[in-house]
Specification:
This protein is of the alpha+beta class. The protein is built from 1 helix and 5 strands, in the order βββββα. It is globular.
Length: 71
């Protein structure tokens, strides 16, 4: 999975803050049939900074992603 950040309201350069496959240890069961993906990413301005990004996905979210991959 690759995570890139860039300005939303103006032109600017992007920065890749995460670039590796999601591993089993990154994925955790959540409540109500949700899955949580939690990864440690680099900082935007300083490479020494780290942030934890957590994504909570429902079955519908995962189906939407798989539909795009399948088409």
């Amino acid at each position: 999975m690759r995570v890139q950040v860039m300005p939303a309201k103006r032109s600017g350069s992007s920065k890749t803050i995460f670039d590796r496959p999601v591993e089993e240890d990154d994925v955790h069961p959540g409540k109500d049939d949700h899955v949580t993906v939690s990864v440690l990413v680099d900082g935007i301005y300083h490479d020494k900074s780290k942030y934890r990004y957590t994504f909570e996905l429902s079955k519908a979210d995962i189906r939407a992603i798989l539909a795009r991959i399948s088409s």
